[in-house]
Amino acid sequence: MSDTSFSTQTHVYFKKIFRIAMREHAWKYLVFAAIIGSIVVFVVGGDMFKSYDTTSAGFFTLVSACIWIGIFNSIQSICREHEIVRAEYRQGMKLSAYVAAHVLWQALLCLAESIVVFVLCCINMHFDKSAHLMASAYVENFITIYLLVFGAAVLGLMISALSSTPTTAMTIMPFVLIVQLILSGVLFSLEGATGFFANFTLSKWGMSAFGAEADLNNMNLAINGQLINEGFSYPAQYVMSGQMIKHSPVVSYYDPKAITVLLAWLIKIAITAFNAVVCVAALKLKNRDS
Amino acid sequence: MEMQKTMYYQPAPPLPATLLVIDCTCKPRLIPLRGSMTFGRLYNGELCNITVQSAIVGRHHGEFVYDDSEGVYYYIDNNSLNGTFINGTKLEKYNERGSRAFRLTDGDILRVDRKTLDRPHPEAVIMIYCTSVRFDESWRIFDTQQLVNITIGRGENNVIRLTDLAASREHAVLRRSPGGWTLFDNNSQNGVSVNGRGVQGSAHVSDHDVIKLGNTTIIVFGNVLIFNNPKEVTGNLAVQIVRKTVDFGRKTLLSNIRFQVDSGDFVLILGGSGAGKTTLVKAILGDGKAEGRIILNGQNLYENFKSMKSQIGLVPQFLTLRLNDTVKNTLMDIADIKLDRKNYSKEDKLRRINEIMDKVGITKLQNHLIGQLSGGQKKKVSVAYQLVGFQKVFICDEPDSGLDAASRTQQMEILREIANNDKIVMVISHEPDDAVNVETGESLFTKVVVIAKSAKDNAGHLAYFGDTQGALEHFGVKKLQDIMIEINPPYEGGKGLADVYIDKYQMMQRRPHYE
């Protein structure tokens, strides 16, 4: 008897996870994605791309929905079978292969979910800006959605690997979501330490990619200059530009350039890869005596 | 055939004390020490416990005194004419009765000889005090008269070929030199010593000197070398736990658990709740390493954990299989993980899975989801799952819990059958009397390990290890499960006699059992 290779084990576990997911009706994840996507798209979709605040709020809601869908996919995947993992690790399972199989399955599931969400977006949103990297802004926005959902799914795997039980994982999940949303840069301005920590969140870089695609910096606020002439006071971060009010200062990571979009994608991929590595390390730590 | 790697030498927990005696007859004798014993010359009319043929040994030369409070032996020279040398130093007269008592430890060399030890008397006697030599080890006499160079090691081309896994392939060389031999250590893993002193590079060896390498002792005796050849251990599991502590050593869970089981053994582990059964199982698995050694086929599990862990399988009390997968897929997946493609084709794996399912009696269930099976069927799948990977040892934690009497017996018969195929199966069970041969009514277990919690130190001790009949006699009961009544504390419905049986077993161990 000798150890089988990483690729063989990944293949075996991927088949197993896929088989069990089909038996556990994995299609329900697509239904959840469709429900959440529908709510988001039909609530905010009509006002998208009309002004800075409505577009920003729309993207924020979309980012939140994507992160929720991704984490929800995987949050219980590993923690519910820690004892099984321990037993199989003893038998010769490679933890890296086990995690890789989960990541591959999530990549597949997230692709299907992203398609569902994106198709819904296309029904009620119009990604009519010109593309930065590819032929179509539609493709770029789809990639942004996919990397968000997939990144969140791997984040969920990491939480699952770190948690001892499903209850613990489900308790941690809201905290992680809140952190992602707070540090997205939409609700609060990110300065100092928060600005630093925000660099490690999927939400910030999701917003960055969407913001650059839609050229958020050049959008006007929903309220116009006439209201100001009538004595309407506006917060300090907004400035008059002719008769229109604009966001100021300009948000650097919404810069409508190809490099902004590319950087946002690469950072999301890096965060996802880091989370996968932490996932393997957490399992190794848990099973160090086995 | 691929040779096994050299084991790191580590002194094992002590065995019952024995004395290796070599006199002018040049025949090594292993004499078990049974309490205090006298030593002297073979003499008509008056005999000591240990006698030798030698004119330079007194009729009441010395005494081995057993201190039962510490379980150690002392040696006293009875002011004999020629005295006794221990490790090269002569014991001096202390009072009219004899010398000071010398506390003996494993490997101490006692000699009755003239003062010039490098030129021994023709009738000199050498004795080695041993607590690491098994009584059933073979001792060989090797004639060196025609030889100038003697290579020693496990390799095939050595003049003296050892089976001791703590010996390197080419461990050392003895080269004849003026006044004896020169011993060269070939940078061996575990080194070599002469008369208890480590050899750096090379050392001079005289007649009657004792060379130690790994578990092998070589005595230079005139024109011969006398050496033991520790048994080549195959297919056995030796548990040598000195202690297992937690809480940074402040709490002891297990103390002095030593036993050895062989291939084909079906072993029952008995013990009350909290006695340390699970701790013992974890220690054997290597999941919760204890102070001591777990030797499987001559290799220390703790030192080779990564490569050896898969040789010991655990069938846990609670199922650790995915409920939403079929029996066959589950077994096929573990076969894909454990059996590599190079040596096993898809057909080979399928054949093996079918054989195992047939052996365990789950062929008809192969397409069922595990979650749909009954408790007994799930346990069978668990056993089958462990069988896929050619493990040598199976530890089953209550494989019969939650089953009716007939299913319990059937489950135990399956495990017994597995043990019959040169495996070791160890079972924790609270219903051991159901494990009987339905035709003969005899117990299926070949060995019984009883762990009892001592009231003295709250740690689990070995209260018995041996065969089933011996267990019943040791505890004076008719059924195995009645042993629990004997050793459990009163608040758990027992008689609270754990310490009585622990002491009884320890006394039994101290008694010489080799004749």
What does it look like?
The complex is a heterodimer of chains A (290) and B (515). Chain A has one domain (6-218, 254-286). Helix content of chain A is 68%, strand content 4%. Chain A has helices at 6-23, 27-44, 52-74, 82-91, 95-124, 137-162, 166-182, 192-198, 202-214, 225-229, 258-286; strands at residues 220-224, 238-241, 244-247. A 3-stranded antiparallel β-sheet of chain A has the order 1-3-2. In chain A, helix 5 (95-124) packs antiparallel against helix 6 and helix 5 (95-124) packs antiparallel against helix 11. Chain B has 515 residues and is α+β, with helices and mostly antiparallel strands. In chain B, strands 2-1-11-10-7-8 form a 6-stranded antiparallel β-sheet, with no helix packed on it. Chain B has a 6-stranded antiparallel β-sheet with strand order 12-22-21-20-17-18, with no helix packed on it. In chain B, strands 28-29-30-25-31-32 form a 6-stranded mixed β-sheet, sandwiched between helices. Helix content of chain B is 19%, strand content 31%. The chains are: A mainly alpha (290), B alpha+beta (515). Chain A binds chain B through residues 1-5, 8-9, 12-13, 15-16, 19-20, 23-24, 81, 83-84, 86-88, 90-93, 289-290, and chain B through 285-289, 309-310, 313-314, 316, 318, 320-322, 324-325, 329, 333-334, 336-343, 369, 389-390.
Question: Any descriptors?
Answer:
heterodimer; A: 290 residues; mainly alpha; three-stranded antiparallel β-sheet; 4% strand; elongated; B: 515 residues; alpha+beta; six-stranded antiparallel β-sheet; 32 strands; 19% helix; globular
